[in-house]
Structure formats: structure tokens, C-alpha cells
Write a structure and sequence with these properties.
alpha+beta, 3-stranded antiparallel β-sheet, 7 helices
Length: 322
């Protein structure tokens, strides 16, 4: 669907220049992400087949608010949708597909209290919203090296091959995973502030602007422009930028973790009837929790990341957020 080549075993395609670092495959394996660089693939301008279809009607700025069920509670009969301007309508159909994501699906089900489902649709066993999982990102260890230029050159963050962009990652070897009972996790190398250091004020401003940007046409256009410019700069000057950032006070090279989680019933999404959102509905509340195996998988991966001769050593970064 995304027109990307299939990579067997998550290794670079034949003909691509692989990094020259060699790791013990039982401990650490090298793999790659592929990136779809079509930022607007799932936006309205790319959905002309749906727009032009005679049997399809698209409602924009319409938030699914609640579901209604039949008297016996075994069938969804309609969905109430609304806009921030106060408009409301109901949509009836023979079949409904819930595809609103890991937060919005439980919000919708929990807010849909009917006579047959007083605790929310499908929540008769108090399971809706539980087992919330994400990909925790954190510093897993600090990289100590006397030759950072060689490190960034040999283990670049990104590579391009035949016009496609690949992101390099390191993950625990299958033997290490089996022996230590580790979940899937990986890490990349990046320049980050050392633990205890304060983030620069301009970085705070950038992050605030990024997260507060409204999802309007102008906001999306600004985000796409920023993202494309950032990608271009990283592709051309990634290693040089890392060396420059490394000169900033309080910065160091870190293993940046991207982890998986095990299902945890106490990690959950709920709705709070005492607080209301912009549509007047009980506001979503997230209690994201980590279990012992989540933390063990990260520490086990970092403990097993035995670098090859001449490569930097990995030291613990102190108290992790995990």
C-alpha cells in the first residue's frame, strides 16, 4: 500500500551500504526502519477515490460522541456526532467500524452508556480501556567515546538507498532475548542532554509550538514544511549537526530507547464525569503504567549491548524514567 520494498529480516536491501560496525549477533543485531515520506497520504486531498465515490459521504469536523445500541444491547444502531460549533446529528447504519485509535475507541465506548450497557458498551467485565500500551522513549545509557566523529560516521542515524530513507536501529539478539526473557525493544544513538541538565529555552519554545499547533490547514502546512526541512537537514548534515550539538554544555551521546510493553490491566484509559471536554462529554483520563518486565527488558538490552573492540562502552544513565 505504501509502495515500500519488503525487507527480509529488517536488513538493508542488496546494494545498500551497510554500517561498518560489527556486533555479536547473539547480543545485538542491526536492523532498519523504512519511512514513508508522503506526509499527507491519509488526508482528504489524497482520498479522491472516496470523495468521488457515489456511495460514500464524508463528514468533516464531525466527532463521534456516543454510540446507541438495540434494546438487547447486541447491536449498534446509531452514532451521535457533533462539531465544536454545537451542531449535532445522528448516523444510522447496518454496520459500524470503530477505527479511532487506542485512546478514542475506549473513550467512545465508555461514554456510550445505554440501558443495556450502563457502564459503557462492551464494558460489562470492566475491560474497556485497560491494557493501554505505548512505545516508551527514554535515555537507556550514555555512550562514552574518544572519537564521536567515527561513531556517527559508522553508525549514522539515517541512510538513503534508491531514493528511500532508512533509519538504523540496534536491538537485542534473539539469543539474548530468549535467555533474559526480554520484550522487543531497540535503541538508536543520539545527542541528548545529560541527566539533570535543563533543556535550552529555545527547545522549550519549539516543543510548545509543535504541540500547541492547531490541526487547521495552516497548522498542517506549517508542520509539513518544518518536517520536510528537518528531514533534508538531517540527511545532508546529520553527523556534523550531532558533533555541533555535542559541544553544547551538558550534552552527551546517549542510547535512545524505543521500547515495547507487556499487557498490564492497571495501565488504562478512563473517563472523568467531573471534568468535561469541548463537546460536553466526560473527559478522557490516561493512567499509563509500566510493569516490571517493561523495565527489565530495557535494562537487559542495555546490559547486553557489548560493543565490538574499539567501540565505546555503555554506562548506566542513572535513574531512568522507567
Amino acid at each position: 500500500m505504501l509502495d515500500l520494498p519488503q525487507l527480509s529480516g529488517n536488513i538493508l536491501p542488496e546494494g545498500a551500504n551497510a554500517p561498518d560496525a560489527v556486533f555479536d549477533p547473539d547480543l545485538i543485531q542491526m536492523a532498519f526502519w523504512q519511512f514513508d515520506e508522503k506526509f499527507e497520504r491519509f488526508t482528504l486531498p489524497q482520498c479522491q477515490d472516496l470523495v468521488n465515490a457515489a456511495n460514500v459521504r464524508i463528514l468533516l469536523n464531525a466527532t463521534a460522541m456516543t454510540l446507541d445500541s438495540s434494546d438487547n444491547g447486541r447491536q449498534i444502531t446509531e452514532v451521535t456526532v457533533g462539531s465544536l460549533t454545537g451542531r449535532r446529528t445522528r448516523v444510522r447504519a447496518r454496520c459500524f467500524i470503530l477505527a479511532t485509535g487506542g485512546l478514542e475507541v475506549p473513550r467512545l465506548l465508555l461514554n456510550s452508556k445505554t440501558q443495556a450497557h450502563p457502564d459503557g458498551i462492551s464494558n460489562q467485565h470492566d475491560r474497556v480501556g485497560r491494557y493501554f500500551m505505548e512505545h516508551p522513549h527514554a535515555r537507556g545509557g550514555r555512550i562514552i567515546t574518544d572519537d564521536p566523529a567515527r561513531l556517527f560516521k559508522s553508525l549514522p542515524r539515517f541512510r538513503r538507498h534508491q531514493g528511500l530513507r532508512y533509519g538504523m536501529l540496534l536491538r537485542p539478539g534473539e539469543a539474548l532475548q530468549a535467555r533474559e526473557a526480554l520484550l522487543n525493544s531497540c535503541f538508536t544513538l543520539g545527542v541528548r542532554l545529560n541527566e539533570g541538565e535543563q533543556q535550552q529555552f529555545y527547545k522549550n519554545i519549539y516543543n510548545n509550538l509543535r504541540h500547541d499547533l492547531s490541526p487547521t490547514a495552516f497548522g498542517r502546512a506549517m508542520w509539513k514544511l518544518t518536517k520536510k526541512a528537518s528531514t533534508l537537514v538531517q540527511d545532508r548534515f546529520g553527523a556534523a549537526l550531532n558533533l555541533r550539538k555535542l559541544k553544547q554544555p551538558g550534552s552527551g551521546i546517549h542510547a535512545v530507547i524505543r521500547a515495547e510493553q507487556a499487557p498490564n490491566p492497571d495501565s488504562r484509559v478512563t473517563v472523568n464525569p467531573e471534568a468535561r471536554d469541548a463537546l460536553g462529554l466526560p473527559r478522557l483520563t490516561l493512567d499509563w503504567q509500566f510493569s516490571a518486565i517493561d523495565k527489565h527488558s530495557v535494562t537487559g538490552m542495555m546490559a547486553g549491548s557489548n560493543p565490538p573492540t574499539g567501540w565505546p562502552t555503555v554506562t548506566g544513565s542513572g535513574n531512568s524514567i522507567l
